[in-house]
Every structure is written in C-alpha cells, then in structure tokens.
Amino acid sequence: MGQGLWRVARNQQLQQEYSEQCYLPRERGRRMAGTADNLNQRRHCPGQGGTDLYQLLRARKAKEEQGFIDLEMLPPELSITILSYLNATDLCLASCVWQDLGNDEYLWQGLCKSTWGHCSIYNRRLPPGFSYRRLYMQLDEGSLTFNANPQEGMDYLISRGILNNQPEEVAKFIFYTRTLNWKMLRIYLDERRDVLDELVTLHNFSNQFLPNALRDFFRHIHAPEERGEYLETLITKFSHRFCACNPVLVRELGLSPDAVYVLCYSLILLSIDLSSPHVKNKMSKREFIRNTRRAAQSVSEDFVGHLYDNIYLIGHVAA
Known about the structure:
Elements: H1 2-21, H2 26-31, H3 36-44, H4 53-66, H5 76-83, H6 88-97, H7 99-102, H8 105-115, H9 132-148, H10 150-159, H11 167-175, H12 182-191, H13 193-201, H14 210-220, H15 229-245, H16 247-253, H17 257-275, H18 285-295, H19 301-314
C-alpha cells in the first residue's frame, strides 16, 4: 500500500515537471484539435491520455545533466573553495577529472595543516619543487608507521626533515595531531619523559574547573588502564601544571600541588565508583566529602562538594 502511494506521488511529480516545460495554452490546443500537429503534440506532451513515464524520465535525466557544473568553467577561487571541502582520498579522485585543480598546492597545504597541525617543516624556507601533496603522503606514512611502531614512526619523520629531533618539536607534533594511536602514544611517552614534560606544558588550564581540566588533560594524554608509576607521573605533572596556570585560585582555595594530586586521585576513584556497573552501593556525596577532606584538610567542604556534583552530572574524568 505504501509503495503504491509512493509510485503515484512520484509519477505525479514527474508529470508536473515535464508538463511545465512543454505546456501549451488551452485555446491553442482547441484550435489545433484534429490536426496532425495536435496528434504529435499529444504524443510528446501527453495530457489526459495518460503519462508516458519513459518520456518523463528522459526529460528529468536531461534536466539533471544540464545541471552538472564543470569546475574548470568556474572562477579558480570558487573552484578551489569547492574542492577544499574534500578529504585526501576524494581530492585524489577529483584530480583524475580536474588535474590542475586537484593538484593545487593550496588544497594540499590545507589538508596537511588540518590533519597535522604542527610540523617543523612548516616554519622552514621550502626548497624549489617542494610539493605539499608529497608531504601529505609522507606524513600519512609516518603516522601509520608510528601506530605500528612509535620509535620507527618518529625516526621516519625526522630522517626526512619533516620534524626536528627536539623534545619541544616532537611534543607540538603530538599535541596538534589526532591520527596517532593512543596506545602507541602512551608507550612512546612512557619511554620519552622529556617529550612528556614538554607536552604537559602545552596545556593551558587557566580558569578551568579541576575535573574539566583533568578531562582535557586525559583527552590528549590517555590514562593507563591500571594504576602504576606512569599514572602517578601523569597526575604529578598535571598537578604542578594546574597550580602554575591558576595562581589566584590556588591562593584563594589554599590549594597546592600535593592537594591537587590527592583531589585528582579522589576524582578518578569516584568516577570509577559512579560509572562501574559492578559497584552496587555507590558512594554518596557526604561520604566523598568526608573521605577526601581526611587526605586534603586544607580544601573546603563546598569545593569538594562541587567536585562530586561535576562527576555525578558529567561523568568519568578519564573516559
């Protein structure tokens, strides 16, 4: 029943579109009734005699083909703007049709910088014959290699002059890149603590609520699945960075890196408690305040209560 109604509505729509293109006034149709011209007109533009679906579909197809736009006929600025919405795969396919437009350096430069926000080569004087398309392929190859073997991936980028072998440059590359596998990144940062130090300093936690800042931190540097020395190192570095970014808040609330360290562990444990389906009896707000203030007595009860509300409403800090 539904498909039948759809076909009827579709046929009516096609008939209406075609009738608008070859409409003849009724008065002229009456004067030409009975003539051969009138018969030919009815054959090509049927009215009451029924709908010729084949002719209607041909007319619609011709209309769609007429609407096809050749990008080479447009102003170059407009064509480049249209192609700038494509990803690398679609842009390669587009270059098969519009070779000059698809290989435009401006488009590939945008793809490189939108995917890998920082590379040392961006700030250098580019040699003659430099190609951003080739650079994109090398960056993609380096990222894929990193996701299989972190050290080999970094060696690949450094050996080709894309990245300087300096901790701050490597940290910026990691911070502004979203294509790196977080498990391999965790392995790499655990081995390169100098890069981890620079990566932490790139975060700006000014005027952020503590749980939100911790979420932002773990969004870039994923927390390990188990508690250990690496997690303690991450929280320690985060605590010092959070206090450095919020000197006024630290002074007003009486916080210190050690107090923030304790609060971070309390937030992680609370997140697990409230989100885990295996925990039947969830921790109450009163229990969380009491347990936290035993370890961090300088922190006010209201502040700890706000921490609980944030986790309860928003969720895990390391999800």
